[in-house]
Amino acid sequence: xxxxxxxxxxxxxxxxxxxxxxxxxxxxxxxxxxxxxxxxxxxxxxxxxxxxxxxxxxxxxxxxxxxxxxxxxxxxxxxxxxxxxxxxxxxxxxxxxxxxxxxxxxxxxxxxxxxxxxxxxxxxxxxxxxxxxxxxxxxxxxxxxxxxxxxxxxxxxxxxxxxxxxxxxxxxxxxxx
Length: 177
Fold this sequence. Notes:
Structural class: alpha+beta
Number of helices: 8
Strand content: 5-15%
Radius of gyration: 20 Å
Strand order of the largest sheet: 2-1-3-4
């Protein structure tokens, strides 16, 4: 939602400035982990429960992270709970990673494949995609057997679907016309 993105932006920008002055890679991992914990149904329920204090919510959230976190990260969680923004962590994380990618001149690429790709196949695919987009790409590969064969690649809002399923759908549309 656009409203969530607008509310999350200042948090993501402030977090990125803090992370950039410290260990950006560690912050990136921690932000991803916090975003995942924020999606837990129990955490969401606590965040929306009027009977749970901000301090209790923050303590529960820190405990759910299950790792030792820095004082800065605890401060972030406290600020988010105090302002009823803890459930925005997934959007904050998404914007944080977009800022990180923009700073590094890279982008995330989602690759769906019908079969597992070997390291060599993935490397070749990423190299050709990097040439097309003119930036470094960070691939995430998922297996989707429904594709039948081939791959579907998503970079930002661009999708390249070279799967057998897509070709069959195009053939069906052409025959139906």
